[in-house]
Amino acid sequence: MFYLPGLLLISLTTFPSLLGPTFNLGVLKAGLLGLMPTGAGFIKPIVNVFGAKQFHPVVQSSLIEPYVSDAHSNMIISKLDSFYIQSKSNFLYILCYYFST
């Protein structure tokens, strides 16, 4: 609900003059510091709980721990992949600009 709109706002700031004649720092702050972290905070705990509930707590108890480990590993790998892709699309430059001002 919040994560994708935040990501969209951050992505729109990578195109110069799309949101106005000057760099729109307010939109970047809203997406980067508001919507995206809020959405990530809602999504991540729910994914693990719903995923672990697919296993029977007594019969399949040995499968719950590997599932949670694999889920966290996949989240970390996907974060690294997305960071690499975003850095190639000039996203890193915008972050450096934001934190230098």
Low-confidence parts? none
Instruction: Tell me which oligomeric state these chains represent.
Output: single chain
Query: Please, what is the average pLDDT?
Result: 76
Q: What's the Cα radius of gyration?
A: 18 Å
Topology pattern, helix = H, strand = E: HHHH
Quick one: biggest sheet? none
**Structural class, from helix and strand content?**
mainly alpha
N- to C-terminal distance: 30 Å
Tell me what portion of residues adopts beta-strand conformation.
Answer: under 5%
Q: Give me the number of helical elements.
A: 4
**Secondary structure tally: strands:** 0
The general outline is elongated
* Helical content (DSSP H or I, runs of 4+): over 70%
Domains (count): 1
Written description of the protein model:
The protein is mainly α and 101 residues long. 75% of the residues lie in helices and 0% in strands. The protein is elongated, with a radius of gyration of 18 Å. The model has no long low-confidence stretch (mean pLDDT 76).
Task: Provide keyphrases for this structure.
101 residues; mainly alpha
How do the strands and helices of this protein lay out in sequence?
Layout: H1 3-12, H2 25-52, H3 61-88, H4 91-100
Helix pairs in contact: 1-2
Briefly summarize what is shown.
With 101 residues, this protein is mainly α. The chain has helices at 3-12, 25-52, 61-88, 91-100.
